[in-house]
Amino acid sequence: MTRLKTHNERHAVSRVSWLRAAVLGANDGIVSTASLIVGVAAAGAARSDVLLTGVAGLVAGALSMAAGEYVSVSSQADSEAGDLARERAELATAPEQELDEMTEIYVARGLTRDLARKVAAQLNAGDALAAHARDELGISEHSQARPVQAALTSAATFSVGAGLPLVVVLLAPTPLIIPAVAVAALVFLALLGWVGAYAGGARPWRPTLRVLFWGALALAATALIGKAFGAVV
Hints:
Helix content is 80%, strand content 0%. By secondary structure, the chain is mainly α. The protein has one domain (15-226). It is elongated. The model has no long low-confidence stretch (mean pLDDT 83).
């Protein structure tokens, strides 16, 4: 008997529930903290004040990211739960109409009407709610909202990203804090863009250039503001 060969496929979509929050958190941690540090240092603050500002930015930013992700993803989860509840009620009260609806979905995807009807009937005979959630509502295991996971991932990656410029402040000579933090932040952002693209299965150059552009813009803007503020004070 010939044994069929199987292989395991890993798709980037399986990471979508946490990858977005991880990349956003780390990117925001690097950009916001490095920009704070550069702006305060450009205003002529002492190293201790620069560090205090960076640490405060890390703590506030991590908590803000966690709260923001939890609230926004919870809203998505509430919407999904509401849609699933309505779909469950419709399956219980109007099963034939739901079967017709699924048939039309599969016909629109290219199946003949007869085959579409058979597929819809067989799926409805199993886990009908899961089938309708996936094919009618677009809710799947990979895309389903997970508020706690998003909040923890964002807070953790923000803290890691924000901690990198702070380490540079501790190690760099005082006169070189601004260029050292700026260069290090851009290097960290480039690495983040490449890693995020690789983890998401995309080509790395465009995401890398994208994060570099916005990071450089943020650093330049805060440096100019800090310099102007320091000159006025």
